Amino acid sequence: MGMTAIIAKLAVRAVRVLIVEVPGQWLTRVELEDQMLRRGWRRAWAPADADVLAVCGTPGPELTPLVDRLWEQMPGPRVRANMCSSSTVSSALNDAATLYVDTDQHAKDARERAQEPQIPHDDMDHSGHGSHDHSGMEDSGHDHMSHSGHDGMDHDNHTGMHHNGHGEIDHSGADHMNHSGNDSMDHDEVDHDSHADMHHNGDDHMDHSGHNGHGGMDHSGLEDSGHDHSGHGGMDHSGHGGMDMSPGGIPLAQGGPDRDGLEMDVLHLPLGPVLAYWPAGLVLDCTLQGDVVVDSEASIVDGRDHEHSLHVFAPDLRAALLCDNVMALLALAGADDLAARARQARDCLLRGDHTAALDRLERLIRTIRRSWLLRWSLQGVLVLEQVDLHRHSLPASCRGDAYDRMLRTLARIQAAVGGAGPMIDDDVSWQVLPNLVTGLELATLRLAVASVNLRLHPTTQGGKA
Amino acid sequence: MDGIVGMGMVAIVAVVLLYGLHRAVSVLAQPLTVLPAQSGWIPQEHALSRYHVRWYLASIVFLAFDVEMLFMYPWAIVVAEKGISAVIEMFLFLGALLVAVAWAWREGAFRWV
Amino acid sequence: MTDSGLVTVSAGWAVVAGAILCSLAVFAIALDTGLTARAQGARGGWTTIAGRFARLLRQRRRTTVAADTMLWRAGGVGMFIGAFFMVAVIPLGQWTLADLDVGVVWLNTIDVLVWALVWLTGWGANSTYSLIGGYRFLAHGLAYELPLMFALVAPAIAAGSLNVGAVAAAQDDDLWFVVWMPVAFLIYLIGVMGFSVWGPFAAAVATDITGGAGTELSAVDRLVFHAGRYLFLAAGAAFSVPLFLGGGAGPWLPDWTWVLIKTLAVLAVLVWSRRKIPLMRPDRFMTIGWTLLLPAIVVQDLVVSVLVVWKG
């Protein structure tokens, strides 16, 4: 056996796996985690550290390009393992292990793959984020595009305006941007006043909402164009001027006003859909100043594909799913051992072993109650009082901070497993997230999101198991 | 002094050996250029930017204290021979700084969200 | 050169010192791997460590679009090299590589260097997660560094010297410093976890920001950066021995063995404590550092200096 073979044989014991969880496929991910433990494989948090890209489920049209791009970011040796359901996990990992040690193949892949990333040059905003902004808008009914007076507007027209929109606004004349009813933009339903309203109210908001550069010029353009044509020229130039200052095809960060009256650069960071301990399929498009999220917009990848799935509601599955959420919260808080116990409780529930599950839950709850450091860490994270619950129409189980919610969830799991009957499904709709988490620091935001049980699409994640 | 230089040499040789070993056994020595990790999304802008350091107030308080350490180290050596007056002087000074810290804390300099 | 009574060995022994440091780091990794495996009910053990090493050697290096490559690599490699510099002044029994008059300040110098190294690693990658990680470390640094400095001063006051050998010698016929300055010892250990970006202070490389400062590192670049963190943890544990734990003092065995035994014990405590303490988020710890640790350590220094003058 040669040197490279020995190295490969050793390396396969410590493989790192980047997990892509297609919404609704959490049971596949659970099985994958179990199989990984048996092999001594661990999870990778980012593509740089990943050897295997494990895709749980079949990605839809929006997730597919993201997965492909993650694949391009993996350094190699890289292996892609597709697992459509939990029954194929084991064989997929066996294949992955075999492929991983084939050094010749990996050397060939390393030489032949694209050595530079492909960045679409024509229009960054549209190709990069456009596609998911747009899905966000369709799903969420643009509550984030403006706060008021928007409802009368046809969604399709609106998205149209945003996507091919630029071109139209720029080139087909000022005429159609005129507020007083014009056909090309189909603004008929929007009366003049409310439209004007939208610009003024939406002003700040659009500035933050992930259309940097184009966001800025967009509405300066819109405002101007409401009055005269010449505004367009200016907008066009500023826009393209920005593009030219793009080392490597990526624009430079732009400044934005800050709470303290400073002007500091804003960065846009989409959280999800491929992110550890993050609700599968959820995308939270964050605008950051420093590590504080000053604006956010939520969407779901491939939201429409899952509407037809069945709503399966087995009590054990639901308890296990909640256990999984608690595990994510503990892992994010840095309590790895407690997270491991929550995972074991979850796996007991999925095996149907109630006695073992109850035993583990009880010990977990006891340890959590004893750990004042954990309480200190989670206390004050996303505090929701009665008024907040009312304002965002949240269930009573969300009351308090992340620590309260975690203990409450654990108590509910315990009660349900102990035979108190099925749990009420009072999960929180993901649409409300931006209202809850905007203004938080990033680490707190991750804890806050993990501390509420989200309903991501009508199916819940019951799966068809 | 030789010892410190020696340790530096050992460390550098270790790094060179590791990089050399990597060249020998990696699938390809030449690095790959990729986009930064953002769950697969194309970044909207370069991350290298004027980062909004929210704790700038804390860093100013820190500087005041940090400069104080310049006095603290030499003071530590002579305090035994100079006697109680040196202790009183130093801790009056530190006390004044701590009052400043208390004030900064009350003003919210250590919170940034 | 000084009154420490140490024998300065020739620079060639640096190879041995480096090997000891690396072994300590491997011990820390092994212990952490073992404890993690036990908690998860997973496979672990020595082969896993060799596997991790092999995996990163086999992996391909990568760079990001428009990365600040020079600063980025300087950060990663610097983490590896820095720890070697730190241990150069630690006496192993009666032998030392460098008998510096200002050895305690030397530790401080290197640990402040880590600020730059972690930040550069975060900055250079031109990646948002990485950048956030880099700045998180600075926020942590602002909170742990001052208490750490005051903790370093406490043994120096008691010994009347900044020479590491002299500090160890001052505990020879006396109580170990850990006994009458426990607050300083505790805060010193917090500082060690801080400059090693370890456990509760690993927010800069945490999961929630996909590995933070290390997000974009692969292959040997990742190896040196993360190995550097363990090396610093080992170096910090080794430094606590002359500062607080009586140096080579101990019955029956030769003094250099005692230094190693004590170092291993402190290192084991540091590794184990990760399992008991959750992450200290920088925004939370900032207040703790300034309003709890700092006043506590200043009072500790006051107590130490009053006692020294009293006995004096």
Automatic annotation (TrEMBL), chain A:
Residues 105-258 are annotated as: Disordered. Residues 105-239 have a biased composition (Basic and acidic residues). This is Uncharacterized protein. It comes from Brevibacterium sandarakinum.
UniProtKB/TrEMBL annotation, chain B:
One of its GO terms (molecular function) is NADH dehydrogenase (ubiquinone) activity. Its EC number is 7.1.1.-. It is a multi-pass membrane protein. It comes from the Bacteria. One of its GO terms (cellular component) is plasma membrane. It holds the Pfam family Oxidored_q4. It is found in: Cell membrane; Membrane. Its main location: membrane. Keywords: Membrane, NAD, Quinone, Transmembrane, Transmembrane helix, Transport. It is an enzyme of class 7 (translocase). The chain crosses the membrane at residues 53-71, 83-105. It catalyses: a quinone + NADH + 5 H(+)(in) = a quinol + NAD(+) + 4 H(+)(out). Gene3D superfamilies: NADH:ubiquinone/plastoquinone oxidoreductase, chain 3. NDH-1 shuttles electrons from NADH, via FMN and iron-sulfur (Fe-S) centers, to quinones in the respiratory chain. Belongs to the complex I subunit 3 family. This is NADH-quinone oxidoreductase subunit. The lineage of its organism: Bacteria, Bacillati, Actinomycetota, Actinomycetes, Micrococcales.
Automatic annotation (TrEMBL), chain C:
Keywords: Membrane, NAD, Transmembrane, Transmembrane helix. The keyword Transmembrane applies. Its main location: membrane. Pfam families: NADHdh. It is found in: Cell membrane; Membrane. The keyword Disulfide bond does not apply. The chain crosses the membrane at residues 12-31, 70-92, 104-125, 146-169, 175-198, 230-250, 256-273, 285-310. It is a multi-pass membrane protein. InterPro entries: NADH_UbQ_OxRdtase_su1/FPO. It comes from the Bacteria. Belongs to the complex I subunit 1 family. This is NADH-quinone oxidoreductase subunit H. It comes from Brevibacterium picturae.
